[in-house]
Amino acid sequence: MSASPISIRGVSKVFRTDERELAALDGIDFEIPSGQFTSLLGPSGCGKSTLLNAVAGFALPTSGSIVANGTEVTGPGPGRGMVFQEYALFPWMTVEQNVAFGLEIKGAGKGAIEDTVRQLLGMLSLSDFRKRYPKDLSGGMRQRVAIARVLALDSPIMLMDEPFGALDALTRRNLQDELLRIWAELKKTIIFVTHSIEEAIYLADRIVVMTYRPGTVKRDLMVELPRPRDPSAPEFNALKRELGQLVMEEQQRHHTDELRLAAID
Ligand SMILES: Nc1ncnc2c1ncn2[C@@H]1O[C@H](COP(=O)(O)OP(=O)(O)OP(=O)(O)O)[C@@H](O)[C@H]1O
């Protein structure tokens, strides 16, 4: 694999509706090296999901280009797996059927599918739940299945859009720890969208802070704290304050913009 499995080059995105044009992203430009855990951080409306969807190939940029695994992104592809906040599981399938689904579509053999599913269910502590249906699982368990399902495809790139946003604090921390363990073991390149500053610092090698509309890169910094990270450590809190200031500036712009739009309506 090349040193930069993801290159984002001059990416802009404009949404056009009948009434107006909305510039969601403007001139985003950065490279993500292999195996890096990058977090996109920013308040609501700064284009985090839009950028992630562009890398996934779900909604392409208006201008600029994205190269993933050496190939220009022109649509979704097996080299990039996506985990959403909403679990996106098939409700009529059991846990093991959900995890096996992508492998069946790929045409993998029965034995290979069984081996992979067994290994992933073990890795995510889901073995005892393999015959259950999503409705009989907690939110945290469902999100484990969603992660296992993406891992089954063996994509070198994992894209995660606020995957733990709907979970309670304890479950969230458990899954963050699991994700770090899996990331270290499988050496995935991850882009993780969050609006939680603490989550970004806890997880990421690198944090890209985005500006409110149009989304641009406001700050791009490496998190040098050793792992496992301690959210009560002074260095952790110093970084939290620094990032909090940056995010708050953008939140303020969001607020001002909303007031301006309300005045126009
Ligand atoms: N399909 C669309 N059509 C029109 N506008 C859109 C569309 N998708 C997103 N937008 C707008 O683009 C901007 C960026 O949205 P996006 O969802 O990427 O932000 P975000 O940072 O991920 O926010 P959140 O954390 O709330 O999901 C927002 O103003 C949003 O309303």
TrEMBL record:
<dbReference type="GO" id="GO:0015697">
    <property type="term" value="P:quaternary ammonium group transport"/>
</dbReference>
<dbReference type="InterPro" id="IPR027417">
    <property type="entry name" value="P-loop_NTPase"/>
</dbReference>
<keyword id="KW-0813">Transport</keyword>
<keyword id="KW-0547">Nucleotide-binding</keyword>
<dbReference type="InterPro" id="IPR003593">
    <property type="entry name" value="AAA+_ATPase"/>
</dbReference>
<dbReference type="InterPro" id="IPR017871">
    <property type="entry name" value="ABC_transporter-like_CS"/>
</dbReference>
<dbReference type="GO" id="GO:0005524">
    <property type="term" value="F:ATP binding"/>
</dbReference>
<dbReference type="GO" id="GO:0016887">
    <property type="term" value="F:ATP hydrolysis activity"/>
</dbReference>
<comment type="similarity">
    <text>Belongs to the ABC transporter superfamily.</text>
</comment>
<protein>
    <submittedName>
        <fullName>ABC transporter ATP-binding protein</fullName>
    </submittedName>
</protein>
<keyword id="KW-0472">Membrane</keyword>
<dbReference type="Pfam" id="PF00005">
    <property type="entry name" value="ABC_tran"/>
</dbReference>
<dbReference type="InterPro" id="IPR050166">
    <property type="entry name" value="ABC_transporter_ATP-bind"/>
</dbReference>
<keyword id="KW-0067">ATP-binding</keyword>
<dbReference type="InterPro" id="IPR003439">
    <property type="entry name" value="ABC_transporter-like_ATP-bd"/>
</dbReference>
<keyword id="KW-1003">Cell membrane</keyword>
<feature type="domain" description="ABC transporter">
    <location>
        <begin position="6"/>
        <end position="237"/>
    </location>
</feature>
